[in-house]
């Protein structure tokens, strides 16, 4: 019951956050150079045609009046209408959002597959050869930009070896899974160094605890002590680290989506900005904000579930 109340409180607190984001985004996007009406009509459009289209789009009204109209539609669940794509923004988000969610899930899975074994091995072999090598990985990984890693993976595993598709999302479930391998690994290679450092430090701290020493003295196998006792307790702080960085990554997936030509909301955002598609940019930004809040909420609840000392308020 306490978890449900906590979730409800966080959802209520989301309302002023979204209002603030909508206000900031609405006015900042108007600072982008260019006229949406002129962009839609092209360079040969007459001033009269541009003026008429601006009137149809409501761009001839004062900014505050436009924001009030936008906010009224937003409260009704209407994110607006895209004149560039001739479709409602909600329909565009509904089509592209699953791709981004697939990407985030794929990146998280590959991050855990890479980071957890390496961090456990480094902590269990502290100051050994394996530990020294694994500790060098984060230093290198943190300095590599995601777009460069993505391009390298495309060249090696896509073009040279031909193991995975280099672009697109596919049509079937099997195509989705294969198409998300390289983008997911790209995200994992940028995220796992941070998690390795955090989890390794937590593991070392836990392995020196009294109850771990007691478990070793009772003759419990090293694997059971490390995996059954130390890892669970060390994972508490690392869950927060993973959640914070995943929330940050949610808003930066557009780079990976651009490299691999994935039709996610990040790619949609870029195309909308280039096309001066104000309603779509506003709607997608709000969706990104909701995703970040949801990820943070799931992180807090998971943290509390793993650590009974945490009190939800």
UniProtKB/TrEMBL annotation:
Keywords, alphabetical: Cell membrane, Membrane, Transmembrane, Transmembrane helix, Transport
KW Nucleotide-binding (keyword) present: no
Membrane topology qualifier: Multi-pass membrane protein
GO biological process: transmembrane transport
Any Pfam family hit: BPD_transp_1
Transmembrane regions: 12-32, 99-124, 136-157, 177-196, 278-298
Annotated Gene Ontology cellular component terms: plasma membrane
PROSITE patterns: ABC_TM1 (PS50928)
Ranges where the ABC transmembrane type-1 domain occurs: 97-299
Cellular compartment(s): Cell membrane
SUPFAM superfamilies: MetI-like
Family: Belongs to the binding-protein-dependent transport system permease family.
Protein name according to UniProt: ABC transporter permease
């Amino acid at each position: 019951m306490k978890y449900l109340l906590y979730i409800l409180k966080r959802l209520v607190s989301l309302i002023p956050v979204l209002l603030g984001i909508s206000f900031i985004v609405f006015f900042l996007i108007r600072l982008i150079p260019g006229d949406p009406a002129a962009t839609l009509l092209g360079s040969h459009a007459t001033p009269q045609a541009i003026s008429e289209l601006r009137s149809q789009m409501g761009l001839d009204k004062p900014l505050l009046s436009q924001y009030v109209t936008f906010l009224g539609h937003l409260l009704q669940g209407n994110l607006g209408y895209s004149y560039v794509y001739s479709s409602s923004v909600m329909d565009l988000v509904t089509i592209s959002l699953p791709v981004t969610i697939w990407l985030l899930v794929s990146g998280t899975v590959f991050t855990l597959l890479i980071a957890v074994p390496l961090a456990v091995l480094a902590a269990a072999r502290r100051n050994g050869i394996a530990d020294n090598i694994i500790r060098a990985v984060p230093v290198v990984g943190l300095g590599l930009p995601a777009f460069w890693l993505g391009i390298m993976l495309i060249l090696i595993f896509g073009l040279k070896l031909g193991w995975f598709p280099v672009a697109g999302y596919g049509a079937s479930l099997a195509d989705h899974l294969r198409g998300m391998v390289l983008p997911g690994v790209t995200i994992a290679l940028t995220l796992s160094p941070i998690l390795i450092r955090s989890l390794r430090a937590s593991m070392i701290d836990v392995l020196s605890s009294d109850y771990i020493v007691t478990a070793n003295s009772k003759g419990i196998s090293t694997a059971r002590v490390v995996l059954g006792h130390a890892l669970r307790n060390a994972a508490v702080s690392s869950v927060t680290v993973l959640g914070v960085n995943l929330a940050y990554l949610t808003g930066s997936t557009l780079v990976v989506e651009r490299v691999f030509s994935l039709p996610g909301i990040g790619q949609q955002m870029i195309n909308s900005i280039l096309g001066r598609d104000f309603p779509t940019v506003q709607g997608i930004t709000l969706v990104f904000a909701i995703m970040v809040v949801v990820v943070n909420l799931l992180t807090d609840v998971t943290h509390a579930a793993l650590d009974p000392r945490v009190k939800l308020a």
